[in-house]
Amino acid sequence: MPAGFVRFRLEPDGDLPVALEPENPDDTLDRALERIEAARPALEALLARHGAVLLRRVLPADTAAFDAALGRLAPDLKPYVEGQSQRSRVKGKIYTSTEYPADQEIVLHNELSYTRTPPRRLYFFCLVPADTGGETPIVDCRRLFEALDPAVRDPLVARGVRYVKNMHGGSGFGKSWQAHFETDDRDAVAVYLREGGVEHRWEEDGALWTSQVRPAAIAHPETGETVWFNQADLWHWSALGARGASLLRVTGPDRLPTNAEYGDGDQIPAEHMTVARETRRREAVRFPWEPGDLLLLDNHLVAHGRRPFTGERRVLVAMG
Q: What is the pLDDT of residues 180-225, one digit of tens each?
């Protein structure tokens, strides 16, 4: 167990997340940062085994404290390139966790699992918890792989997932390609896509269409364990319910803002994606946020989402 922390249980029989709190919660920020830095090797070991560690009220609830802690934990952060969620950059490579409407759920997923180099670590930090709801549910992707109905799981494992995206050039539904790639440079985007093996084309109106095939499950890069690692059920048109069905009728599957298909281009049955989402929800663990909470995730072992909420809710995220 990391020195300077004591363990407590959010769930009577659960180890997800491993929940720790400081032995001396009233220490100065400098002492808190020293404690986090000293605990880093032990925290990495816990992440490798469990996939999620919650440090309860470990820091003052402000952005500067989070930024300072990241300097001790994760000096090499990644930008949010190719990201689907509406986010704002807060400072450096710290972002708002999402600006998705508060009354809607975000399906559990592994961050940027459709990209060539997904982040290994996610760092969530709570500034202001929601009045109600707003939890960040998490699920062990080893357990999820075993829990999924083989009729849903096995075809995706065998055929892969084709992610299709249509991004406008500055005006339209969803994020523009400029926001997705954090640049206005078309040539730089084209180089990035070619290097990632992403099929793409520029449309006459300035929009960008992309298509990339990725695995539905992978061997964990450190442990070799099989993990469910994809966003098929989040990208699939059925995630939008009746609205998605209406869009599909108007645009067809290849002109939707986002869609997921089998790797060979065949359509994934909507009922399969419903089963996948319901399995994620059933297997997920939820816990309430408190100000100053820092949640560390192994992005390959653990998927995350967001519950609907009321109130202000301010949660930040960084990726490494």
A: 999 999 999 999 999 999 999 999 999 999 999 999 999 999 999 9
Q: What global pTM score does this model have?
A: 0.94
b or e along 153-171 (b: 16 or more beta carbons within 10 Å of the residue's beta carbon)? bebbbebbbbbbbbbbbee
Given a contact cutoff of 8 angstroms between Cβ atoms, the answer to whether 39 and 289 are in contact is: no
- Residue 7 in tokens: 């363990």
pLDDT tens, position by position, 41-92: 999 999 999 999 999 999 999 999 999 999 999 989 999 988 877 788 899 9
Give counts: helices (H), strands (E), the chain.
9, 19
Q: Which contiguous run of DSSP H or E holds residue 40?
A: helix 29-50
Q: What are phi and psi of 35, to 5 degrees?
A: -65, -45
Which residues, in sequence order, are CB contacts of 204 under 8 Å at separation 6+? Answer: none
- Phi and psi for 277 in degrees, rounded to 5? -65, -40
> What is the set of domains in the chain, with CATH numbers?
5-137+287-319 (3.60.130.10), 142-280 (3.60.130.10)
